[in-house]
Design brief:
Layout lengths: L10 E6 L8 H12 L3 E4 L4 H4 L9 H12 L3 E6 L6 H6 L26 H18 L5 E6 L10 H15 L2 H7 L27 H29 L5 E2 L1 E2 L9 H4 L6 E4 L8 H25 L61 E5 L4 E4 L2 E4 L4 H11 L2 E6 L25 H15 L7 E2 L3 E4 L2 H7 L11 H14 L4 E4 L10 E4 L7 H12 L3 E5 L21 H4 L1 E6 L8 E2 L5 E3 L3 E5 L3 E5 L9 E8 L2 E6 L2 E2 L1 H15 L12 E7 L4 E7 L5 E3 L3 E3 L5 E2 L2 E3 L4 E6 L12
Parallel strand pairs: 1-2, 1-11, 2-3, 3-4, 4-5, 6-7, 7-8, 8-11, 13-14, 13-15, 15-16, 16-23
Antiparallel strand pairs: 9-10, 12-25, 17-20, 18-19, 19-24, 21-22, 22-23, 25-26, 26-31, 27-30, 28-29, 28-31
Helix pairs in contact: 5-8, 6-8, 10-14, 14-17
The protein binds beta-D-galactopyranose.
The site of beta-D-galactopyranose has 10 residues, from loops.
């Protein structure tokens, strides 16, 4: 079975909202989709008020016609459950299911995402519409994928949430003493003597309790996951052969642990909208795609090892029995005595061993479910994408394993809150650059069908930990400038610019598969994760840790005795004091580079200093250290290096670790990513620069069908080489 069901090759299409248009437009839409070679569209994602205009009275006639038309046109459907936008009648009938903000304001309908996932009425109505859709369309031949909800992300602080939060906390802690310990209840008189006294973290007089805030983030993620799983299970029961997913939204406000959710979706699907119009857009694209691939790999591994499906029948996660002694849900007690799961020896240090995908395609399944065709939205402004950029961004996702490129949306709306958002068919209609590029992209994706067999392997990994992110959003830290995503992005950018493709890993991943592991601002570090990191280095791994890692345990309680608490031994350092810097301050370092944002008083307890602070309070103190530990090496970086210096450092450290860049001859500005099978490989070369570039490699360029040696890329141009061991012009014919 192919996932999405019935589709071969790469997926191409996007959100299709026919309910916004008169029926006469629908056949024209299908005709245009055929011209663009669209093969998959998401339908019905915000159509609840049209599908169920009154409670329990459904109107499916229009959707029947749309699905029939699409099917006749050869286009498959990701059928959405419209539960992200309950109809006005629902909110008026069930005001208790409208979300409440931390300050007690109950929101009104009139936008979208106005639901409380803990409200029984909302859950029942969501199940109702999902069941009705499943009954109606279970046998429709266009149905390729279930698309549950849209971008789960609403947080609520109402009384339903208070009840659910308490249940979650009881399951996590068992008793109030343990809760008091985790939340440091003795600080500011916060001992609870009855579970009923606990509330969601609502607006209070002064600083909130960091332990409570962190657990609330964990709870919200699990509660939303419970809502998803409830729909997934009934859809699965109706159509066991149709995969089910939901589209992840990315961003700092997102209350969802995507890595954890990955085990519960059949296909990781992300929406990606870069928030920068310059080169930052390409960097964010690479980061998002590497995260998506890593979540998919993790999800597939958890399913394979039987660790998915930990959501209880009530839809609540973390019910008794699933919480280990350490307090982490669903992971405790499952890691072997050494803390290792699997050995990297199977795959060498060329990346973690990829499990075969469920459907036999290359690598775990993930899909770029939404992106903007012709615009980049930055705060206050919509930037038109330059010609070719939409295709390049789409290829950047496919290069990193996406099973296609999907967009928001098919046809630009005539009204509504997103009237000027981008579309494959813009307001100007098909006689437009945007639509012509959409047609070109359809051709490009068609020509790339064979790459779907290829897996991406990364020799280096960065730790990703959403709990550390949430904890770093606290207002009680030594610097308001510490930003988890900025730290992770800086490390990812530096490794990418050094030519490496990067995986993201979590505690229970196969760390030994990687030559180099980078821990940026991994603030929370449970004991067993720390033990695995020590084991990784002892066994020969190379580690680079940056400041503000290993500081606290999973309850955000600081490890005493010197920072970076859980990593002191492996790093051979002991940090006594932090020196958060003013944003404008630059600290000179002994190797001619500069540090910023952060500095520390680092004492050596076994490590060798490599670079020193030069001048000021920390003059002569170590800034970068190296510690040989077991068979491996552990580096500690106590300040933020500027872009080039961080790239150079990570390039050196990765090289020493034995990690080779994907394409060492690719010039700066050209992104190189490889997908491959045991027999063959494809090299994606994406020229993000404004100059023509030459790359001294050869192979058949699938985009042109011609053999290239060397590859010449115009400014903004791309090539996808089918590499062969004996790449020679005679191969041209098999393009
Ligand atoms: C996405 C969302 C879409 C649409 C789009 C606009 O995050 O899923 O429904 O709002 O943004 O850019």
């Amino acid at each position: 079975m192919r996932w999405p069901k019935g589709l071969t090759g790469l997926c191409y299409g996007g959100d299709y909202n026919p309910e916004q248009w008169p029926a006469e437009v629908w056949p024209a839409d299908v005709e245009l989709m055929r011209r663009a070679r669209v093969n998959l569209v998401t339908v019905g994602v915000f159509a609840w008020s049209r599908l169920e205009p009154q409670p329990g009275r459904y109107d499916f006639d229009w959707l029947d016609r749309v699905l029939d038309l699409l099917y006749d046109g050869g286009i498959r459907v990701a059928l959405a459950t419209p539960t992200a936008s309950p109809p006005p009648w629902f909110s008026l009938r069930h005001p208790d299911a409208l979300p409440v903000t931390a300050d007690g304001t109950r929101l009104s309908h009139g936008s979208r995402d106005t639901y409380c996932a803990s409200a029984p009425a909302y859950r029942a109505a969501a199940r109702g519409i999902a069941e009705a859709l499943a009954d109606r369309y279970r046998d429709h031949p266009s149905l390729a994928l279930w698309h549950v909800h849209n971008e789960y992300g609403t947080t609520c602080h109402c009384e339903h949430v208070a009840v659910a939060f308490r249940a979650w906390l009881r399951a996590r802690y068992g008793d109030l003493d343990r809760l008091a310990e985790a939340w440091t209840g003795s600080f500011w008189s916060q001992h609870y003597s009855d579970w009923e006294q606990i509330r969601p973290p609502r607006t209070t007089r002064y600083l909130g309790n960091p332990g409570q805030l962190l657990d609330f983030r964990r709870f919200v993620s699990d509660e939303l996951l419970g809502a998803y799983v409830e729909q997934r299970d009934l859809l699965r029961a109706a159509t066991p052969d149709v995969p089910v997913t939901t589209n992840y939204v990315l961003g700092g406000w997102v209350p969802v642990d995507h890595a954890r959710w990955a085990a519960e979706v059949d296909l990781v699907a992300i929406d990606h909208y870069p928030a920068e119009a310059g080169p930052g857009a390409e960097e964010q694209t690479a980061l998002a795609a590497d995260l998506a691939r890593s979540w998919a790999r993790r999800g597939e591994r958890l399913r394979r090892t039987g660790r998915a499906g930990q959501v209880g029948a009530t839809g609540h996660i973390g019910l008794a029995g699933q919480v280990g002694a350490t307090g982490h849900i669903g992971l405790a007690g499952r890691v072997g005595a050494t803390g290792h799961i699997g050995r990297g020896g199977q795959g060498g240090r060329g990346g973690a061993v990829e499990p075969a995908s469920v459907d036999g395609s290359g690598g775990p399944a993930w899909l770029l479910m939404e992106s903007a065709p012709n615009l980049i939205l930055t705060p206050g402004r919509m930037h038109a994408k330059e010609p070719g950029r939409m295709i390049r961004h789409s290829l950047a996702h496919v290069a990193r394993g996406s099973r296609g490129a999907m967009f928001f949306q098919w046809r630009a709306s005539r009204g509504g809150a997103e009237v000027f958002h981008s579309a494959l068919v813009p307001h100007a209609g098909p006689d437009s650059r945007a639509f012509r590029e959409a047609v070109s992209l359809g051709g490009v994706l068609d020509r790339l069908a064979e790459v779907d067999a290829g897996t991406v392997r990364a020799p280096v990994a960065i730790a990703w930990d959403v709990a550390s992110w949430w904890a770093l959003q606290s207002t009680v830290l030594p610097s308001g400038q510490l930003d988890y995503l900025a730290e992770v992005s800086a490390a990812h950018r530096a490794l990418s610019r050094a030519g490496h493709t990067v995986d993201f890993v979590a505690e229970d991943d196969d760390l030994l598969g990687y030559a180099l592991l980078v821990l940026p601002a991994l603030y929370l570090l449970p004991d067993r994760y720390a033990a695995r990191i020590h084991d990784y280095v002892a066994a020969g791994g190379h580690l680079l840790v940056s400041y503000f890692s290993g500081i606290a345990d999973e309850d955000a309680r600081v490890r005493t005795g010197g920072y970076p608490g859980a990593l002191r031994e492996v790093l051979g350092v002991r940090v006594e004091e932090f020196h958060p810097l003013d944003p404008a301050t630059r600290l000179p370092l002994s190797d001619g580079t500069t540090g910023r944002l952060w500095a520390e008083t680092v004492r050596l307890t076994g490590a060798t200093p490599s670079v020193f602070y030069a001048g000021g309070l920390l003059d002569g103190e170590p800034a970068l250290t190296r510690h040989d530990y077991g068979d491996g090496v552990a580096w500690y970086l106590s300040t933020r290096l500027d872009g080039d210096a961080y790239r150079d450092l990570l390039a050196r450290v990765a090289e020493a670790a034995g990690a080779a860049p994907t394409c060492p001859t690719a010039p700066a500005g050209v992104e190189a990513v490889r997908r491959g099978t045991a027999e063959r490989s494809w090299l994606f070369l994406l020229n993000h620069s404004a100059e023509a570039q030459t790359v001294p490699v050869c192979g058949v360029d699938l985009l042109t069908g011609d053999y290239a040696d060397p590859v010449r890329l115009p400014a903004g141009g791309c090539a996808v080489l089918r590499e062969t061991a004996d790449a020679d012009p005679g191969r041209r014919s098999d393009a």
